[in-house]
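I have a small job for you when you get a moment. Would you make up a two-line entry for one protein for me to read? No commentary is needed, just the two lines. Write everything out right here, beneath this request.
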Amino acid sequence: MSEPVGFIREVKGDKVSFFLNRGTNLSFGQIVRIDSASKSFYARIVDAGSSSTLKTDEQLREAEGKESFGPYSSYRHVDAILFLEKGGKRIRSPTFNPDYMDKVHTTSQEDYSVLRLGGDLEIARLRSGEQVLGTVGISVEAIPLMMGMFGMTGSGKTNCELMLNARIIDSSPRTVGLIFDFAGQLLDGRGITPQRGLRDHQLFHTRVRYYSAREKKMLVGLYTVHPYKLRTLFPDITQHQVRLAQKLYKKLGRTWIEQSREAYVREGYKGVAGLTDYKSKAVIDALMLKLSSLSLDLFPPSDYSFVDDVVQNVSKGITCLIDISGISFEEQHHVTCLTASSVSLHYKRMWEGNFEKWKKLPTVLITLEEAHEFLDPSLPKTIFSDIALTYRKYRVGLNAVTPRPSRINLNVFAELWTKVIMKTELRRDRTYVTENTPYLEYSDTEIKMLDVGEALLISEPKIRFAVPVKIIHYPEYLEADSEKVDYNLPQSSSLAEMDEKLRKIRRAGESLE
């Protein structure tokens, strides 16, 4: 157990203030233990100050050397918020608070076991001042309860994404990932030093499938785009446009988009109107403008769609990494929404139609970078809002990754039960996070002061407080795990056994001669 670092000076509700022993250093967000009678309380440091017993005018004269007041006391006081109580073997939220003069301690390895921070997906280590203690993980059960990763550019989000998805790959086929990589960083780990990405994972070639538009592996056949998919591709589409699309599909079949575009090029809206009894020029023009935006590079005239391949792979526990860098934002939007929708609807239909088979599906986590572009309340609603709000019972989870959390719809933000909060400098984003996340009411200063790779982690219902963590460096994880990989290969014979078999074969051959 650690030595005392101070003692309680004042307690009010869940807020405690204590004097810090001279020469002792703590840090914002650090967890401390307070021993009080038969109980121990755990609290997070949220503020600190220093002063002396001199009055202000006396302090000024003392500083100028004009007058000496003899012995006096200077001191540091620290404010902390209670979050946990341990009484005997029982651990729960605080039922009371400590008393004046109770001793305050820094957390030790023994305290780490009390905090119960271990989870299936280990992504970080507990920070205690300048030290790190045991690992901190997110449980698999937390995946469908939705997640968010927030932090400014350069705060360590890419490394955190790599760690989380690496653990998901390790846990396959129990878990599986569907990852949308907007910057093309996750495959090779650009921005990580030393540079390591998911392709360096020991199980990449067996448990990961990579798709990229540059390698022509991300094609969606135009003949697979039915009218019901238009709402996914174009969230702002109107009911009148959908009705027109249904009429065209009924008339022309699977080539309806191709023929409609050809008729529109030849004769304008009248060419499309001649294919159906729909005569509204505004509706026809609006629909054809949308259909014309589907580029032949991503939407060629064929029956093949990589989305079907993604659904099959995810169902088998194979993580799918979809690199959408190098294409326009509109095309990124199409691919992302269509793929996520297809996977989510597959899980939903299996839950409704074949529950026993659904139970064998892996729990899926959809990693969405630039999430604010899809979850902004000022923009048309996308499939990702539906996933966050209604798909948890199907074991489909969303990980919303963004440097701008304040642009995420509040209803969606409230459903993100696991949050990894990294350094955030914009006051608007910090305020949004702290005001709308339990246990972060006093953490504005701490979030601003976080170093690269440091974060606060909350993962309800398992972790009901903000844990100060250091995200594990992905290259270090690769090195540590390189000797643990089991490829499930059959046991090979020893050299002595193989030599003996060769001698027997040789003797048999000689006898035949």
Observations:
- The domain at 135-221+299-481 is CATH 3.40.50.300 (Rossmann fold).
- The chain has 19 helices and 18 strands.
- The CA atoms of residues 236 and 380 lie 6 Å apart.
